[in-house]
Amino acid sequence: MGDKREGESFRVFCYGGAKRFEVRRLGIRSFRCYREGEFEFGAGLNLVVGRNGVGKTSLLEAVCMVLRLQSPRSAKPGPCVAWGERNFCLEGDFVEIGEGGWERGVRLAVENGEDGRRLWIDGDCVRDSDRYLSLGRVVWFSGEDRELVRGSGTMRRRYLDFLCSQLFPGYLKVLRDYERALRSRNYLLRMGARRAEVEAFDEPLAGLGKRLQECRQWVMPKVKERADEVVRWLTDGVENVEVNYLPSGGSELLKRLRENYEEDQLLRMTTLGPHRDDFAVLINGRSAGDYASEGQQRTLSLGLRFAQAAILIEVCKQSPILLMDDVIAELDGERTERVLRILLEGSQVIAATAREGILDMAGKMGWKVMRLKG
After folding, report:
1. Domain 1-136+320-374 adopts which CATH fold?
2. Is the pLDDT of residue 333 over 90?
3. How far apart are CA 45 and CA 42, in angstroms?
C-alpha cells in the first residue's frame, strides 16, 4: 500500500504480481427468493439496482456462497434454501487474469441443503473443500458493518474468521473442530458432569484454540496497518485508527481453562478461548464504539473491509471480488468520491443499491448496470 494521501498517487491495493479474479456468469436455483435465474457480470464495476425486496442482497450473497461456501448473513445453509425446496444450487463461471493478459477460466458449482453438500470444479465432483476454496476470494461490505465498531465481539470474530479462512488453508476445519469440542464441553457443564469429564475436553480445546489464535495474532498487525492507512486517506489525515487484538485466555489457555473451572461450572459455559476473542477499535486514541459519530463509524468499517482486501492481495497474490450491499449510498459526497477512486483500482466490484440517483454517476464511470424487478 502507498503512504501518500493526496491526489491519484495514493493506492490502497498493491497489485504487483497479483492476478485478477472475476465472476462472469452466475446461475441460481432455489436460493433465497430466486427459484431460478442467470446473471452476467462485467469486468470491473457492476451496479445492481432495484427496490427493496427484489433480491439484490441475495444475488451478492449467492456470489459469496458459490466461492466461499459461506453466507455472510447466515451461519448455516438452511435459511438460504428457497421456501418449499430441499436444496439450493449455484453455478458460476469465473476467470483468473494474470499479468500480460493471460486468462484461465474455471466453473464452480455447489448444491447444499437437506441432502448435504456437493461441490464441482469444471464439472468434476470433488470432496476436497480446501482445493475448492483455494480458487477465489471475496470481501463483503454491508450497511451493518458499523457493528464492527460499535457492536458485540461476535461480528468482529466473524470478521477475523472470514479473513483467516481465506488466508490459511485448513483454518475452517480447525475452527469447526474447535466449535465441536466447545459444544461438548459446554454440554457437560450444563448437565453438571464430573470435573474429570469436563476437563477431558480441555487439551483438545486448548490445542485447537492455540492454532486459531496464532492465525488471528499474525493477521491483526496487518489489519491495523492497512485500516489506519485507508482511514487516514478517506479523512484527509484528520482521523487515525488503532486495532488491538484481545485474545481470550492468553498464551496459556490450557492452564487458564483448568484454573477457571469453578467459574465455568457456576456459569455452565466455557468462558475462555477463541470463541471469546475480540479486538478493540480506537479512533484518535479513544474507543470508537463509545466516541465515534455515525459518519466516523462508517469510515472505520470501510477501513476494516478495505484492509481485508489489501491483505488478501498482498498474501494470496490475487484480487478478491468486492461485494458491496447498499454501502456507497450511505456516504457523503467527498467520501463517496474517495471510495470510488479506490474501487477503480482494479478489483471486480458488484455493488447493490435501491437509489436510482446513483445511476448518473455509474454511467459516467462506465459501470455495468443490472436492474432487478420484483
Report:
1. Rossmann fold (3.40.50)
2. no
3. 7
